[in-house]
Amino acid sequence: MKKDLHPDNYRLVVFEDLNNGWRLLTRSTATSEETIDWEDGNKYPLIKVHVSSASHPFFTGEEKILDIEGRVDKFRARTNAAKEAREKRANAAKKQAKRKAARAESAEKTKA
After folding, report:
1. Can you tell me the distance from the alpha carbon of 40 to that of 54, in angstroms, rounded to the nearest whole number?
2. pTM (whole model) above 0.85
């Protein structure tokens, strides 16, 4: 292993989730100008985060599909249009094959 790869300046830091106010005191190398008074009476640097395991829908079980811009509907419409186009091409190819076979059969009849 490489020497001196990991930082050695860990210190106690408070992470605060801005969505629900949940706070966690842990060790980190993150820096911050803000401080907060913690439950033990000491001041610790404060790192504000927008999402944590306390507010992320995956961890809270409140996962919802938000389709503000109709992206899901647009995707389904494109998928259906592509499927219909494939079916049209397949039907056209079948019709063309039938016509070609009919022409070949009529050509054989006229030769005989």
Report:
1. 22
2. no
